[in-house]
Amino acid sequence: MLNRFCKKPLYEVTRTLARVAMGEEKAELVIQNARLVNVCTAEIQEGVDVAITEGRIALVGDAAHCVGEHTVVIDAAGQYIAPGFMDAHIHVESSMITVGEYARAVVPRGTTGIFMDPHEICNVCGPDGVRAMIEDAKRSPLKAMSNVPSCVPAVAGFEDTGSRIGPEEVREMMAWDGVMGLGEMMNFPGVLAADAAIHGELAETLKADQVITGHYSVPDIGAGLNAYIASGVRCCHESTRAVDVLEKMRHGMYALMRYGSAWHDMPVIIRAILDNHIDDRFACLISDDTHPDTLIEDGHMDHIVRCAVREGLDPIKAVQYVTINPATCFRMDHELGSITPGKCADIVFFDDLKDVRVTRTIIDGEVVAENGKMTVEIGKSAFPSACYDTMHVGHPITAESFRIAAPAGKDSVKARVIEIIPNRVGNYERLLDLSVKNGFAEADPAQDVMKMAVFERHHATGTTGRGFVKGFGFRKGAMAQTVAHDAHNLLVAGTNDEDMALAANTLIACGGGLCAVADGTVLAQVPLPIAGLMNDLPVEEMAELVGRLSAAWREMGCTINSPYMTMALIPLACLPELRLTNRGLVDCRSFRFTELFAD
Amino acid sequence: MLNRFCKKPLYEVTRTLARVAMGEEKAELVIQNARLVNVCTAEIQEGVDVAITEGRIALVGDAAHCVGEHTVVIDAAGQYIAPGFMDAHIHVESSMITVGEYARAVVPRGTTGIFMDPHEICNVCGPDGVRAMIEDAKRSPLKAMSNVPSCVPAVAGFEDTGSRIGPEEVREMMAWDGVMGLGEMMNFPGVLAADAAIHGELAETLKADQVITGHYSVPDIGAGLNAYIASGVRCCHESTRAVDVLEKMRHGMYALMRYGSAWHDMPVIIRAILDNHIDDRFACLISDDTHPDTLIEDGHMDHIVRCAVREGLDPIKAVQYVTINPATCFRMDHELGSITPGKCADIVFFDDLKDVRVTRTIIDGEVVAENGKMTVEIGKSAFPSACYDTMHVGHPITAESFRIAAPAGKDSVKARVIEIIPNRVGNYERLLDLSVKNGFAEADPAQDVMKMAVFERHHATGTTGRGFVKGFGFRKGAMAQTVAHDAHNLLVAGTNDEDMALAANTLIACGGGLCAVADGTVLAQVPLPIAGLMNDLPVEEMAELVGRLSAAWREMGCTINSPYMTMALIPLACLPELRLTNRGLVDCRSFRFTELFAD
């Protein structure tokens, strides 16, 4: 694919690069005396120089003749250099910060490129939201290559989103400058069932000569996986077993091994490579979703590389998995992913190959970060005003809004309750007896059962789903959030109607986000005014806000890990077993709406 | 790049493939019980089935559920299957046969795709010649993917060709259906010197998102090689030392290791891989130029794979070098080069991995060859009439045409004589004393010196270069050929003017080719009426004709290997030291015309 993520396209600068390599012109920048992690041949080369001009590499080897009086010289003094790290699958919105701020967090860690799938904002703001993310990225040097979200809504017919994507939108968006590939095709049932609209999206992507990224999360690695790959999907990050990775790679699919904040699949699935003597050119490491505190405390791809090496992976291979392999996955290896002539000069420096800690990041030939900090300015975010105006519930929310009328004449009811499973994406349907008061079914803290509601918040349709959830451990209060996958409606859960109403109205007032309420008081709040998903605050401040929210939830009795992430998945109707959307309770085994009360 | 070399583009058939993989529709063809050479993971997998429909692979694994009553089933009975072999750099014209006939020769050997660089015919017939090659290929199932010749003429200003290629032609031709990439950029001095027209061709190729193929044949693996690669060249087949291969791969360039009829570089240069423990994803095997007798006696890529394995290369790697690696080089690995879902069903069968002898070839899901023979019809060639009308010398050639006037009043002269070196592309300049008779310098069989002439034959310009050549061992007679790189003018050499005139006129009469004459008699003749380069006869007949010519040359006293190939390079002014073109004698060290007589 043509590379639009560079200072200048190669075809404009081949003459200059040739002259610099020959010493006829002097380089703008020369790195001297480095230890090159050569990802092409999987070797370490000592005493290597790199000559750079116009944002691209002119020469790798002895660059003495490329140094002139205006050449900036960096003495690597024997430090390792490697191609800048790339994340082949990432949702920036999960970090709750803007793309520019995300760049500020990850570039000093050595990330120079991401293939982002902005399907969260697309569910809220549609293609305009995707465009806003692409535009926002431009204020940073990070190469934020955007996929076109493929599944908006995630599960059509069961929820209401702010927008929808079909083959026509895919066709249009594929021509956008900042776009590279189709976002994760979560509707694998549609792919396997030869659904016309889904395959229409695949076809438009292939016609545009772009890459289809995958999401194949079921254990059928026979017919189903073959059907999925035969439909043109080139990579997948949903492996949870080593055999998933092995079979995907054997079938020519890039296996993107995930190590995000919440889902730690990599240590398990990397056994596919560690335990088998196989060619691993189809292996990559990715993050998928990262919370702001993970970015600050652990890092990004550097962290994942370190973790993979700790699991026993050869460090050079680990570097290949975040450089040349993802570049080849996206058919961009002629532009990115190696320190070789002609490529974009995206280069990281570090001291220890077995414990990669990046000390300097170069993008397009410019030093953009040193010692953990950006060395170039990142401008202010400028999301369009429409992205700041996404709370359209359309009716007042009061304590009455959370009442759940029981069948007439009952003192107690048997309800279908969603029981969460900490640290897992799946959940269970439980049939539980709940008491009825004044005709309304009630929450029951004694059984760890809260009330729950999902208010449509995009087009003021007034639709609201109501139900019960078990397992969060709350003894009091309520929580609300507009990060509620993938439609990102207004999700509220609580032990009493008054606190629930306060939580909901708190988020409506601040344009969306997350909050915790107890005894009529807002304990903590993470405002996410951009689409109800992001804030343009610095990542450090966001991490602090999220930390306070976590503390509030603990105070209310919730002890599970990342509870807001587990809560956020409750409306995602493509996961088993029981989900609640703004349209009601969905049985995700039969893909049918179901009644809240069983009797 | 979009694949135009398939039965149907993937985007048209994803739904069908998905249905077949799921068993909802039955496959057209199922291969059962094969040993799969998995080029993705470099493993052998036992007991593998492959389900195929619409020319593409729907499933690899257990295909029992894909078999219906109309499914053709091939029981591999434990035979190996591998992706069809590809040659990443080949000039079909060197085999002196048409592309269709070439296909008939190589497809039964397991070749399913070639990246051909038709620069020989382009020198004679221009872009129309290239188009004729592409059209000719369509009568066979072979995927003949054509490069756009980059260097026509090979060395501008020193010879006259039938056509010329510049950036504008490259721009136009890149949009052609049958085109994939730019042909070997032989003008590496122009690349290194930042020549505007040469870089214009590179730029047009890069703008078209196509691959630039290389020809970098000098020992400078420092500045020069870097400048060349930085200019966007992705592969090169001109390595003659192991270190060339190593440095090219280290610099992210695909090293195409050559094993053609005349140049046997591979056994030497493959040491780069055999002696170093490196990642070899940038390694390929190619043929470059193959004579018809080699195709018949030895084979094509199967032969080269066998030779590489005999040198000690792991057989699975050897298969990777002719499948997934060349496919990735041309950024076509999502379409070709592996037996994985969605890819073109180009598959070969063989019994012994260490001695690959292909017994069946499938292209686009159809069995096209079995047991050494095509099983599908290849139609008649239909080159346009212009390609059959390329002998335009424009003046009668007689014995007088070969007279070389000596400086007035001399009995003998000191002449600059071209001395050939058997089995090498270079030659030497020798200063030799030649006798003068009636004012004309004479050939001298005692010193093994023949006369030589090159007649421009494209546009009847009447230009003729004359000189002397040493080293062929001829005791009598003359030889002529229109295979005379790269301008392919009419080249004649001989011991006497009368036989030379007969040889020249014999070729003019038959539309070009090669012939040997002695004592006023034509001893052997290989007519090449298509552009003076090819004949549409079957390869077997061509091999026989070439064999008779070789016998005639031996009879005339020439004992060196492939003499017509060595002779054919005499006009190629980009090789050292002294060359003769239709414009005169060229000193290829200084790139200047030089005088024939030194005194």
Task: Describe the protein's topology.
The structure is a homodimer of 599-residue chains.
Chain A: H1 10-22, E1 29-38, E2 43-53, E3 56-61, E4 72-75, E5 80-83, E6 85-90, H2 99-106, E7 111-116, H3 119-125, H4 127-137, E8 143-148, H5 167-174, E9 179-185, H6 188-192, H7 196-207, E10 212-214, H8 223-230, E11 233-236, H9 242-250, E12 254-258, H10 266-269, H11 271-274, E13 283-286, H12 292-297, H13 301-310, H14 315-321, H15 324-329, E14 347-350, E15 358-363, E16 366-370, E17 373-374, E18 404-405, E19 412-420, E20 427-437, E21 440-441, E22 449-455, E23 464-470, E24 478-481, E25 490-494, H16 497-510, E26 513-518, E27 521-527, H17 539-555, H18 563-568, E28 578-581, E29 584-587, E30 592-593
Parallel strand pairs in A: 1-4, 1-5, 6-7, 7-8, 8-9, 9-10, 10-11, 11-12, 12-13, 19-23
Antiparallel strand pairs in A: 1-2, 2-3, 5-14, 14-15, 15-16, 16-17, 18-21, 19-20, 20-21, 22-23, 22-25, 24-25, 24-26, 26-27, 28-29, 29-30
Helix pairs in contact in A: 3-4, 5-7
How would you describe this protein?
Two copies of one chain form a homodimer. Chain A is α/β, with parallel strands linked by helices and 599 residues long. Chain A is 26% helix and 27% strand. The first copy, chain A, contains 18 helices and 30 strands. In chain A, helix 3 packs across helix 4 (127-137) and helix 5 (167-174) packs parallel to helix 7. Chain A starts with 9 loop residues before the first helix and ends in a 6-residue tail after the last strand. The model of chain A has no long low-confidence stretch (mean pLDDT 96). At the A-B interface, helix 1, strand 3, helix 7, helix 8 and helix 9 of A face helix 1, strand 3, helix 7, helix 8 and helix 9 of B.
